[in-house]
Design a protein that fits this description.
The complex is a heterodimer of chains A (111) and B (112). With 111 residues, chain A is mostly beta strands. Helices cover 0% and strands 50% of the residues of chain A. The chains are: A mainly beta (111), B mainly beta (112).
Chain lengths: 111, 112
């Protein structure tokens, strides 16, 4: 079984600044992926970024990047140059055969 | 390229009733997973279907059942509805062997 902990229920950041969302997890899987999903008020779950656990290089997608520490089972998301449209719930989700979601972090980007 | 679609968008039912939710996967996908998301929480895995069979199941009672059709679309059925079944039900599709799942917009179920 997998467990996921997102220790920051709510965060806020000023527009154009950088914010980091934390996630730790526990898994017995050897081969797995990790995902960050975004869920805006429209409630559509949108994939933000993915990381293969066997890769040491941290994934980057435009303004989004991760800091993956496999030994520590840590998978944080950094959002650079925050935009108003980044306001949403963010869920960390490691996966083996099925996605296991954390409780989420509510991010508010302020103008 | 059509994404994942779900119907209906909203649904209100009474305790004890039965409900059926529907999902059409993204074009080219053959695997469908269902999740329950209570208000303010992360989604919880219900089950996954591939080749018209349930492959995996989360910690949900037998009142929750599903079906997958030959065209890969899927249904989620919930019997004997409880107030606690009120939630957003998300469907996600993927290609077998891929860990990446694409989500639909969800069905908001309210049980009164």
């Amino acid at each position: 079984a997998q467990t996921v902990t997102q220790s920051q229920p709510e965060m806020s950041v000023q527009e154009a600044e950088t914010v980091t969302l934390s996630c730790t997890y526990d898994t017995s899987e050897n081969n797995y992926y990790l995902f960050w999903y975004k869920q805006p008020p429209s409630r559509q779950m949108i994939l933000v970024i993915r990381q293969e656990a066997y890769k040491q290089q941290n994934a980057t997608e435009n303004r989004f990047s991760v800091n993956f520490q496999k030994a520590a089972k840590s998978f944080s998301l950094k959002i650079s140059d925050s935009q108003l449209g980044d306001t949403a719930m963010y869920f960390c989700a490691p996966t083996g055969n099925m996605l296991t979601f954390g409780g989420g972090t509510r991010l508010m980007v302020k103008p | 390229d059509a994404g994942v679609t779900q119907s209906p968008t909203h649904l209100i039912k009474t305790r004890g009733q039965q409900v059926t939710l529907r999902c059409s996967p993204k074009s080219g996908h053959d695997t469908v997973s269902w999740y329950q998301q209570a208000l303010g929480q992360g989604p919880q895995f219900i089950f996954q279907y591939y080749e018209e069979e349930e492959r995996q199941r989360g910690n949900f009672p037998d009142r929750f059942s599903g079906h997958q059709f030959p065209n890969y679309s899927s249904e989620l059925n919930v019997n004997a509805l409880l107030l606690g079944d009120s939630a957003l039900y998300l469907c996600a599709s993927s290609l077998v062997g891929s860990y990446e799942q694409y989500f639909g917009p969800g069905t908001r179920l309210t049980v009164t």
